[in-house]
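Box S1 | Example of a co-folding query
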Amino acid sequence: MSMIDHTHDQAARSFVASANGHADFPIQNLPLGIFAPQGGTARAGIAIGEMILDLDAVLAAGLLDGAAEEMAAAAEGGALNEALALGAGPRRALRHALFALLSEGSPEAARVPHMLHAAADCTLLLPARIGDYSDFYAGIQHATNVGALFRPDTPLLPNYKHVPIGYHGRASSVVPSGTDFRRPHGQRKPATETAPSFGPSRNLDYELELGIWIGPGNALGEPIPIAQAADHVAGFCLLNDWSARDIQGWEYQPLGPFLAKSFCTTVSPWIITPEAMAPFRAPQPPRPEGDPRPMDHLWDEADQAGGALDLDLEAWLETPGLAAKGLPAHRLTRGTALALYWTPAQLVAHHASGGCNLQPGDLLGTGTISTAEPEGWGSLLEITRGGRQPVTLPSGEVRRFLEDGDTVVLGARARREGFAGIGFGACRGGVTG
Ligand code: MN
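Box S1 (continued) | Returned holo structure for manganese (II) ion
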């Protein structure tokens, strides 16, 4: 587990003025990403306040040495896969070097300003070439809410509390925040219709999830022991697993979701490192009385003691009607990552337990995160009870599911007394017709 050190000092300040008190990217965060400045090519960067530090330029200027230099060199080329593969040591060394470089009173401060770009003028890209993307179902309240729509008496299937449920998703259609997508077409067969038909999804939904970026990974056939699983997590992001519920309901049996999920998945572009999240780790909440203890290959005392993420999560809806009336975005969800039934390490260990090789830059989704309270439900499927109880917005608009022109924005904030809070930055996507 990551350690607390001087880079987590609440009093630390940067000479990049916008970083100080920044809700997402103060100097205590320093997330990694890939960006393109206006008219420039894709390169590695670090978010600092309202600016992005060009990591390639820092490297070229000779401002790094040792493992930090090795990490920055591996980050060249417009994708972070090789850097993520280096694991925690070089990642922490780079964090420490950049913390020193960007700190108030840094002796190199005068050399840095021309390496900074206003984030508003840059394009944020995917941080890695995603070889594989898998999505779990670790939000037990979400699984319960969805299961109850079909099986009110036994919402959870018998396997749920024993095995982290997941499926292999589609990597090619993972897009960075800010990318709009077209409403998917597919086969639909609602109970009210006698025959299936092909056409645009009528029940388009969002799913509020966290993404887990894989670091070093494992060789084919060599599982990752649970005690080492956290070493293979390179960081976290927000993930919106857009879902066409009507297509899903018709196609998913017996093999699971296919076209209902593969048309688009949106991630926030910054990789929030385990080092940045160190102050915000928490014990995995104890399982309710009577739930099975995780099997040995998923049980680690240190992971149980500090492997969960204490992270506030939100989902916001922007609509044409709200915009036309000058009204703010409508908050759909306010929840917490502590509602996950499995830790990130358990998801990694489980994924590799059969011998599947995880590779640097692979992406895992946690599954939709919903809390016990309705305000924390992480999809419209739950909020509107399958579309039966529509939401009326302050604009007067009514939503069962998403309409063309709607945009969903996910956000995440970590806070703890005595530490500078950090955020993940936005995970935004809009649906077009
Ligand atoms: Mn999902």
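Residues 133-432 form a domain with the Fumarylacetoacetate hydrolase; domain 2 fold (CATH 3.90.850.10). The radius of gyration is 21 Å.
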